[in-house]
Amino acid sequence: MPKFNLTRREFLKVSGASLFLAGLPIPGYTQDKPPGTISVIILEGGMDGLTAVPPFGDPSLMKMRKNLTSTNFLKLNSFFGLHPSFQYFAGLMAKNNASIVHATNFPYVLRSHFEGQNLMQGGGLSPFSDKTGWLGRALDLANTPGRALSLDMPLILRGSNENDNFYPASIRSSGDLVTQLINNISMAHTNDGAENFKKVSIKSTQANVIVPRDPASLANYAGKVMSQEGGPLASVIKVDQFDTHARQGAEEDGHHGTQLTIVDDIIAGYRDGLGDAWDRSIILTLTEFGRTVAENGTGGSEHGYGSAGLLAGGTISKSKVISQWPGLAKNEQFEQRDLMSTIDYRSVCAACIEKALGLDHDLIASKVFYTPKLPRVYDLIFS
Question: Does an H or E element contain 204, and which?
Fold first, then answer.
């Protein structure tokens, strides 16, 4: 059968460039398997945390963003609501399997997509200061760098191991390119780790079935692979189009509401795919920045600072909204325009690493985020 070079565009058609799997334990390279799995949903463009999780108890909210706040929000407590697009996530909160961190972000305030996205994936002290990513460095510390199944290794998963991304130059043409890509990885790497990846992937795919590109199906597929014995420990899914400068909308049928529904579906996909492995999983969202407190003149919002982070997984035993609320009044805003960030989101990421990979917080703070005095919020999230 003839061979052909699998281009990036062709790979996108098959598996969706939005999905990345990594952290496949390699026997002989690691002594103890980490206790859990970690999945990251990257929301590119700047998710509006005030629309996603409206602080209806703040008297300034409706004064400044009447057209960006749903009137059908789900009430979480006496102060915070949840956008109606998050129906599944709301169910997880009711089951004590999800939480929210509000008024949070990485320590970046210049509102550039390129710099902000680099910093949230790199986790360094400044944009473009590091060639590796925070999750990749964490996997290195856990001695499970493994392999990543992707053409285009995202910065967040890059570790010090130069070979932790693999993509074959050619692949046979047939009905199931994903399975062939997995087979090529296995043949190119004779170590037990590659064989493990082949085994668990075969269990989670069927012959001549192409994995759909839609994000929910990718999450379901990732969950199934991660749930298998010897499967990957980490996954990353990217969702874009959160940069809503105009016609953002407030309800489920609005632009931002549609994007939030996608996030909700991804979380549902992970839950279904993980099965019993849900009990040892943690899922978290990332976004480069939030949006301005006040809506603009075109029914949208501008680049801001603080936002909200969503957490889900069986490792969460008590749902809550974690926040040191700064207020939305003009004099309470960052630079009199943005939601202030009062919780360093690196601390949230560190807590998730600590839970999933079993690493010590001080080690994560110094070696993953280069900030030895990074506050520990583990108990706020997992107790």
Answer: helix 192-204
And the tokens for 230? 């010897």
Dihedral sign (CA 139, 144, 150, 152): positive
Q: What is d(CA 327, CA 312) in angstroms, rounded to the nearest whole number?
A: 26
Q: Report how far residue 141's alpha carbon sits from residue 10's, in angstroms, rounded to the nearest whole number.
A: 34
Domain ranges of the chain: 3-382
Q: Is 49 exposed, middle or buried (0-12, 13-18, 19+ CB in 10 A)?
A: buried
Query: Model pTM?
Result: 0.85
Report yes or no: 365 and 373 within 8 Å, Cβ to Cβ. yes
Query: Alpha-carbon distance 193 to 182, whole Å?
Result: 12
Measured CA to CA, the distance from residue 361 to residue 192 in angstroms comes to: 30
Higher pLDDT, 29 or 329: 329
Question: Alpha-carbon distance 365 to 242, whole Å?
Answer: 29
Cβ atoms within 10 Å of 75's Cβ, excluding its own = 11
Average pLDDT, rounded, for the chain? 83
Non-local CB neighbours of 90 within 8 Å, separated by 6+ positions: 74, 82
Task: Please tell me the distance from the alpha carbon of residue 192 to that of residue 174, in angstroms, as a whole number.
Answer: 26
Burial code (b: 16+ CB inside 10 Å, e: under 16) for 184-196 equals bbbeebeeebbeb
Instruction: Give the type of residue at 331.
Output: N
What is the CATH number that goes with domain 3-382? 3.40.720
Between helix 8-15 and helix 177-188 the angle, nearest 10°, is 120
Instruction: Please tell me whether residue 166 adopts helix, strand or coil conformation.
Output: strand
pLDDT tens per residue, range 162-184: 434 433 333 333 334 444 444 44
What tokens does 106 get? 């990485």
The two structure tokens encoding residue 103: 């008024």
Q: Is 368 in a helix, a strand, or coil?
A: helix
Q: How far apart are CA 374 and CA 90, in angstroms?
A: 30
- pLDDT, residue 32, reads 66
- The closest alpha carbon to 22, from 138, 137, 133, 165, belongs to 165
* Separation CA 167–CA 182 (nearest Å): 10
